[in-house]
Amino acid sequence: MRFKILIPILFSVTLVLNGQQPSIQMEETGIWNGLYIKVRFSKYFGYYGEHHYRTRNQEDNLWSFYGRPKQWYNRAGINILFNPYFEAVIGPTLVLNYSPRLGDTAFDNITFEPRIWHQWLFSMPSMGRVKIYHQFRFEHRWKRSNVKNSEYEYTDRYRYKFFAYIPINKEKIEKKTWFISPSFEIFMQSGRSIAFNPFEDFRTYNGIGYVYNNNLTFFVGHMYTLGQKSTGFEYKTSHVLRFNIMIGLDVRSIENRLPNINLGF
Are 235 and 228 in contact (CB under 8 A)? Predict the structure, then answer.
């Protein structure tokens, strides 16, 4: 419902600013393979990491999902656990962006994109079987095009994600539990190079997972994205298949450990 309300508003603003009719075009499919790691060091501190290998479709086959590398994505940070309902992460990110046209000498095959990120995660009290989360993530990015000799540009990204975990075969998520997780996320951006496209992306990501044990969880899902291009009146969409492994470790002494399960963010 919120998505249906948001899009007409964005299109209306686009019409006013650009005097153009908005257009939406499907541009990409892909596969994201993700490894999520959480390590608990103490009552209040831990480590959090995300490592993705992302592919995109072949140049001549939009629905192939695989055929060209897209990114190596590495995010890490210190996880600060304030209480059972609020935690934060801060740390660095390094993204390797592959050229969309491999072999073209006008493009660099790989560019490096460093970032600094911080995140706030709010967990709501359980409502029956349903556990709901609100995630706010902020990224400070230095990025350039794969076109040779292009310059780095600094931008800020602001993200809000609403997601839930819902067990299927048990009353709560524990070992040997199947669960579903619906989510949506809105991306906004700002910077000197951002003129007509402050609405960077909208994502809806839904899937099913299985908790093997306290340390290992598997999750697969489908993600649909809608993003605003630099013109402001053109929008691009994509479909992505995602396969995730989530590892949770607790290195504290046995008497201080809690049976937490890593479901990732």
Answer: yes
β-bridge mates for residue 128, sequence order: none
List CB contacts of 87: < 8 A, sequence separation 6 or more.
Answer: 79, 80, 81, 120, 121, 123
Q: Which two tokens stand for residue 55?
A: 């592919």
Beta-strand runs (E) in 17-147 = 23-40, 45-57, 67-83, 86-98, 110-123, 131-143
CA–CA dist 244, 136 (Å, integer): 21
Q: In the numeric block, which tokens belong to residue 219?
A: 């999750």
- Token pair listed for 23: 């257009």
DSSP string for 187-224: EEEESTT-SS--EEEEEEEEEEEEEEETTEEEEEEEEE
| Number of CB atoms found within 10 A of residue 199's CB | 21
- Residue-level length of the chain: 265
Spatial distance between the Cα atoms of 69 and 58, rounded to a whole number of angstroms: 10
User: Would you tell me how many other CB atoms lie within 10 Å of the CB of residue 190?
Assistant: 12
pLDDT in tens, 100-150: 998 899 999 999 999 999 999 999 999 999 999 999 999 999 999 999 999
